[in-house]
Amino acid sequence: MSLELTPQDAPILDPKLRAKDITDSVLRPMGIWPGLPWYVCFGLAQIALALFGVAVAIQFLVGIGIMAISNPVGWGVYIVNFVFWVGIGHAGTLISAILFIFRQKWRTAINRSAEAMTIFAVMTAGAYPLVHVGRSWVGFWLIPYPAERQLWVNFRSPLLWDVFAVTTYLTVSLLFWYQGLIPDWATARDRAKNKVQKMIYSLLSFGWTGSARDWNHYERGYAQFAWIAAPLVLSVHSIVSFDFAVSLIPGWHTTFFPPYFVAGAVFSGFAMVVTLLVIMRKIFQIEHLITIRHLDQMNKIILLTGMLVSYAYIVEFFVAWYSGHQYEQYAFYNRAFGPYGWAFWIMFFCNGVVPHAFWSKRVRTSIPAMFIISILVNIGMWFERFNICMSLHRDFLPANWGIYVMTPYDWMITAGGFGLFFTLFLQFVRVAPTIAIAEIKTTLENPTGFHGKHGHAHGNSHAAQGAH
Amino acid sequence: MARIEYPAIVAYFRDDHLLMDVAEGTRERFRKTNLDAYTPYPVHGLEHALGLKRSWIADAVRVILVTGWGLGLYFQYWTSAVDWATNIGGKPFFSWPAFVPVTFEAGVLMAGISNLILVLATCRLFPRPKTLVLDPELTDNKFALVVPIGRNEDESKIAEYLVEKGAQDLVVVEGADHEAGEYQLRPVAMPLMKGGAAHGFAHAH
């Protein structure tokens, strides 16, 4: 056996990294103009976003009939994309909150960008139902407030639960993210060269100075935030799944939808994080901070959650058969072998087969391999939601059966989601610290370069400090 | 942004462990209850070394969380069963199982918003165009211990102790000029180390 160090055996961060290196490498991209790749990506995102705007504008002018949704498929690309993007959003809070609670220190390199991804994905997701309601300009009727209509919203409706879940999730993720950013804005402020930058960062940093008295409250607040956000992650996609599960449609009316949806959300979210980070670490030269070990860990989570969703796919078929329920059985037979069978098999291949490549260490640590797999997983997860929504196309009465034919507007609005998401994300990586500077410093083995050198030299070192 | 009690000696360190040792030593030796420190990242255990109490924020947030749940549930009961009771699918007016998701989210939303507000208010953080900063490196890789000087206290004694324990640099903060966004600083009066020795002497490292 060779004693060569493989990437798996290497420490997650180089022990020679110092606090100063972190500050320098994270803040460097904030002070310079981005290179050509950024402009190309941003240009493409702008084009896609424009498609979204045009489709929505035409829909507002002409009416929702321009889209492919009709009877019986009343939930078309809007809901497919909504669930897809909410799902993407789940990795960020999982990384920032749940891994925080489990003291997974490696999260500090990726939590900032994953949380940003969460916020932008949830914003993108929120745009779809808002357009889907048709008269989006009265979308605020979903908020319970004493109105001249004298009616309250129906709190028994899963669609209203969704409104609460998604807005709460967006708000709490945004605040949690911002709290994490405060000390990093202060670092940027104290290193800013020109006056305008200094003032902007000073405003953004809320006057943070790093006082130990402030850190004391800050840290307790941050930990408590994590404890609030952790069940929130689980609740949001559970509630999204209730949109389906609380109805009586065959293939939707299933008690195990919440865990199935949450696993799928984490699965797709991590895939998106891997896709984005592989590019980001390269472009911004932070490969020493987001190491191959970080990507390896995320790929393991993709493997685990991929198996959970495959299990869910199989159990759905088993339960349909075991239920002895004619409509339920037909819904699943039709899903795999009906007109949309191709979509089912794309999904099954991408989510159920492809992630198993991650059993191999070589695949888990190969950048091109993980990039391709993460994209395939994203495609697979889009088709999962497509499959679920397309269950509607053959309902109880064969006279109602129909086929959902995507119109150009459907495609525009689908591409537009990517446009909106990437417009926001690309701006974030330009202007904000993409790695939690203060947090990652606490995970360095020797942030100051002095650890281990003294300790015994100081006479009054008390027992608790003796370990150093 | 925690306020400094003027006048105070600020001792700079290059290492967090050393800072922690000296903070603890200073607190015990000079019986200080009002020490503060500046660190670029949270230093685990420093709050004990400085003798800080455990922050109450988490407890407050938990109370708000439970209150939010109560209010969320009550609001749904009031709108669905009292203010405008509507028969929906023959369900009871107060069909509480259907109210669980919104109840949960209402509590989390209230707790989440209050969490950040409490942290900001407790630390007196709000957007300001100029921030009083002792040293720009304190948010990068430098550490400072702030020792307020008592009314009749001999600052040179504290200074000597800090130097002996390994402080890299000392300075006294007399006050702050908020207009200019600067602290008013002066060198430490140290009879034993005249001739500028109190400034910039090298630590053993």
Provide a brief overview of the structure.
The complex is a heterodimer of chains A (about 475) and B (about 200). Chain A is mostly helical and about 475 residues long. Chain A has 16 helices and no strands.
The secondary structure category of chain A is mainly alpha
Radius of gyration of chain A over alpha carbons?
24 Å
Count of β-strands of chain B: 5
Give the rounded overall mean pLDDT of chain A. Answer: 87
- Oligomeric state of the chains in view: heterodimer
Number of strands of chain A: 0
| Main sheet specs of chain B | 5 strands, antiparallel
Backbone structural class of chain B: alpha+beta
- In percent, how helical is the residue content of chain B? 25-40%
Treating each run of at least 4 consecutive H or I residues as one helix, how many helices of chain B?
5
Q: Could you list the spans of chain B in which at least 5 consecutive residues all have pLDDT below 50?
A: 194-205
Q: Please report which band the strand proportion of chain A falls in: under 5%, 5-15%, 15-25%, 25-35%, 35-45% or over 45%.
A: under 5%
How would you portray this structure in words?
- The complex is a heterodimer of chains A (468) and B (205).
- With 468 residues, chain A is mainly alpha-helical.
- Chain A is 65% helix and 0% strand.
- In chain A, helix 2 crosses helix 15 and helix 11 crosses helix 12.
- The N terminus and C terminus of chain A are likely disordered.
- Chain B is of the alpha+beta class and 205 residues long.
- In chain B, strand 4 and strand 5 form a beta hairpin.
- The longest helix of chain B has 27 residues.
- The C terminus of chain B is likely disordered.
- Chains A and B meet through helix 1, helix 6, helix 7, helix 8 and helix 16 of A and helix 1, strand 2, helix 3 and helix 4 of B.
